[in-house]
Amino acid sequence: MTNGVTRVVALGASNLTLGLQTAIATSRAAFGPSVEILVANGYGRSYGAVSSIAGRALPGILQSGLWKEMERLGPAPTRAIIMDVGNDILYGVPPARILDRVDEAAGRLLAHTIDVSIPDLP
């Protein structure tokens, strides 16, 4: 346990972005004000490719700096959520490849916690 701080990791695109303040408030209510929150999100965010919306580009979630940051921070009690799993449909990614990307993200998270949630598609 790292100073009794719980880490919450959230991955997603627009739905996570729109609900981020709620997610932060809920995490603080559940785990205390010093909860550590790591997020890879953004409008139009892809799990596996660079996405470009409104003139700004973001790396895929799998290529984001979040993973190196988790390693740098070291172990901590962790909870995770994977959202917006269908977002890559916008980029013409076949469903099997989308599932591969989400499976890879889940596998990376499972190296840190067994508590990984994937909510239903909206």
Describe the overall structure.
The chain is an alpha/beta fold and 122 residues long. It is built from three helices and six strands; from the N terminus they run βαβββαβαβ. The chain has helices spanning 14-31, 66-73, 95-110, and strands at residues 7-11, 36-40, 51-53, 56-58, 78-82, 116-117. The chain has a four-stranded parallel β-sheet, sandwiched between helices. A two-stranded antiparallel sheet has the order 3-4. A hairpin with a 2-residue loop joins strand 3 and strand 4 (56-58). The mean pLDDT is 92.
Task: Spell out the blueprint of helices and strands.
Elements: E1 7-11, H1 14-31, E2 36-40, E3 51-53, E4 56-58, H2 66-73, E5 78-82, H3 95-110, E6 116-117
Parallel strand pairs: 1-2, 1-5, 5-6
Antiparallel strand pairs: 3-4
Shape: globular
- What is the arithmetic mean of pLDDT? 92
Helix content: 25-40%
Specify the structural class.
alpha/beta
Biggest beta sheet summary: 4 strands, parallel
**Which value, in Å, is the CA radius of gyration?**
14 Å
Distance between the termini: 35 Å
Please trace the helix and strand order, writing H or E for each element: EHEEEHEHE
User: Helical element count?
Assistant: 3
Beta percentage is 15-25%
Poorly predicted tracts of residues: none
Number of strands: 6
**Side-by-side strand order of the widest sheet:** 2-1-5-6
